[in-house]
């Protein structure tokens, strides 16, 4: 079941040329303390081979997210990223989740998993081709259960991971959120949701890291 999914965290930190609004690879070892000692689905990123890495790209980047990379918070806007998965199965349907497991901070993640985006009934054919940023919400490009919300780490709360998780949907079970889940993005019990909706297969994932450098002490 979904609770048994185990992928090992791999971290690829980068530096950025922010004035030109595009991302270039670099080297950094900062922030590893945020990523260690996490368990379960928190490790569902980065190191299971290229065929398991979900291609996610924001329009301010000159290429897809490098799994584990740092992205400056100020570059994000209200538009969702483009998403592509070349290994998606034609005729199958998928669920895409974007969550923050470090809400309100990695040291005190009592609001995990903060749900930033949840789209169901995504066509494998569309994922193979790639779904552009502007196409999300259009007819035929999935059923949006939670509208996209860009990263919103609280000031001074340290580094946050933002994880994109792609699941193969069961063929007949309807995918819904409860009324309570619809009201609140925080404290989203992702594992319980996946079990209740009868998801069994995590097919791909990626993540980036960002932070809001404020003047408050870390939460």
Automatic annotation (TrEMBL):
It holds the Pfam family PBP. InterPro entries: PEBP (IPR008914), PEBP-like_sf (IPR036610), PEBP_euk (IPR035810). Keywords: Signal. It comes from the Eukaryota. Residues 1-28 form the signal peptide. PANTHER family: PHOSPHATIDYLETHANOLAMINE-BINDING PROTEIN (PTHR11362), PHOSPHATIDYLETHANOLAMINE-BINDING PROTEIN 4 (PTHR11362:SF82). This is PEBP4 protein.
